[in-house]
């Protein structure tokens, strides 16, 4: 029996939560930076995909981010809401996998080894069902990568987030024996 490991990664988690809890403010801002304040020193925790196109990255000083993207709205990290949403996502994931291990507030490893007969579907299909359940129950987007170990799952989730042309976004599984490719 080969290991079946998934990595569920909440997409732009801090941005998504900030938009969710403030739909009339952060929710309307296409260019959004989470972390710090525009009038004080601080560090970017996360940035919307639109702001990232201007070169804004996490761990960057907020002042520098605003020089790169002066039109961006800056909001503080909604800490309690992020903790609550993280727990909600973890609860959904726990219904699908016998072992769920949080890697951070917005990433979880799922060990689905031995569930092949239970689910009776390719691992990528299970990943798609998990993504849909998380989206439906929390309103938050998730990308999932899978493979035979955590490293392969981590690399696969990056392909799920930025697939090559013509490939599906959101779920990518590296099949056993295909790791080198």
Fold topology:
Blueprint: E1 5-10, H1 13-21, E2 32-34, E3 46-47, H2 49-52, H3 62-68, E4 73-75, H4 79-94, E5 99-104, E6 107-111, H5 116-119, H6 123-138, E7 142-147, H7 150-161, E8 171-173
Parallel strand pairs: 2-4, 7-8
Antiparallel strand pairs: 1-6, 1-7, 2-3, 5-6
Structural commentary:
The chain has 181 residues and is an alpha/beta fold. It has 7 helices and 8 strands. The protein has a 5-stranded mixed beta sheet. Strands 3-2-4 form a 3-stranded mixed beta sheet. 39% of the residues are buried.
Keywords:
5-stranded mixed sheet; 3-stranded mixed sheet; 7 helices; single chain; alpha/beta
Distance between the termini: 22 Å
Structural class: alpha/beta
Low-confidence region ranges? none
SSE string, helix = H, strand = E? EHEEHHEHEEHHEHE
Order of adjacent strands in the largest pleated sheet: 5-6-1-7-8
Percentage of residues in DSSP E strands: 15-25%
Supply Rg: 17 Å
Outline: elongated
Query: How many E-type strands?
Result: 8
User: What is the percent of helical residues?
Assistant: 25-40%
Number of helices: 7
Described by strand count, sense and barrel closure, the largest sheet is: 5 strands, mixed
What is the mean pLDDT? Answer: 94
